[in-house]
Amino acid sequence: MSFLQRCVFSRILQQVSGARGQRVATGPVPVSTQLAAWRGHATAGAGSGEKSSVPCVHERTFIAVKPDGVQRRLIGQIIHRFERRGFKLVALKLLQVSKGLLSQHYCQLTKKPFYPELVGYMTSGPVVAMVWEGPDIIKTSRMMVGPTNPAEAQSGTIRADFSFHVSRNVVHASDSAEGAQREIKLWFDKQDLLDWDSIDQSVTSEL
Ligand code: IDP
Ligand code: MG
Q1: Distance 108 CA to ligand 2 centre (A)
Q2: In angstroms, rounded to a whole number, what is the distance separating the alpha carbons of residues 70 and 171?
Q3: What is the pLDDT of residues 67-106, one digit of tens each?
């Protein structure tokens, strides 16, 4: 076998074995096929213990636009940040928060001196509650939102770009996997969370 033949043969072998889900572009692939491949890869990565370049495809987090964000007509701009990053919206509602829900949401803060002020702020008007999904979204969304005190936040984060005081910091994002799971369960019924295929999934993360 000539060197050229060996190269061609090994290339074909690579393609046939699929190189663990890494697609070799050979021409236009129908969206339905791409989605099926993406889902297959996701399942293998999550369930079989295989290493994957996609950290955790089905990670979800709880994000809320607080009453100051709603009053200041910032809902669209905040949603836009998550959309343009490539994350997927799986639940959304506008609601007036009760003190009961708030005390469960902020159960670790009820003894803080600022808690009464926080309750007043968070119940002063509607809140937009959302669940977003994407790889590593819990950590990434905290970076996008910025630190609790907007005065310490980097320009480009939501809190730095839209606020300047800790008592009116516009947005909430869960701070851990446990927190996200607890908050999603607290704010939404299971049937409110939509499982849907977004057609850009195969072009915004590596297959
Ligand atoms: P986080 O929202 O960045 O996770 P937490 O420490 O969990 O920060 O505090 C929850 C919320 O409580 C903050 O987002 C902010 O609205 C409010 N808060 C925190 N610290 C203060 C404070 O010192 N004064 C007034 N409000 C505060
Ligand atoms: Mg917090």
Answers
A1: 9
A2: 10
A3: 999 999 999 999 999 999 999 999 999 999 999 999 999 9
Is position 47 within any domain?
no
Strands 60-65 and 127-133, sheet pairing: antiparallel
Question: Rounded to an integer, what distance in angstroms lies between the CA atom of residue 50 and that of residue 180?
Answer: 25
**Are 97 and 30 contained in the same domain?**
no
Distance CA 16, CA 187 (A): 46
Q: What residue's CA is closest to ligand 1, atom 13?
A: 148
The reply to whether 13 and 109 lie within a common domain is no
Dump pLDDT digits (tens) for 124-148: 999 999 999 999 999 999 999 999 9
Residue 172 catalytic? yes
Is 51 contained in some domain? no
Domain match, 32 and 64 both: no
Domain count, the chain: 2
| 86 CA to centre of ligand 1 in angstroms | 27
- pTM of the predicted structure, to 2 decimals: 0.78
What residues flank ligand 1, with Cβ below 6 Å?
109, 114, 117-118, 148, 166-167, 169, 172, 175
Residue range(s) defining the domain that contains residue 7 = 3-42
Of these residues, 58, 105, 165, 172, which one is catalytic?
Answer: 172
Please give the single-letter amino acid code of residue 142: R
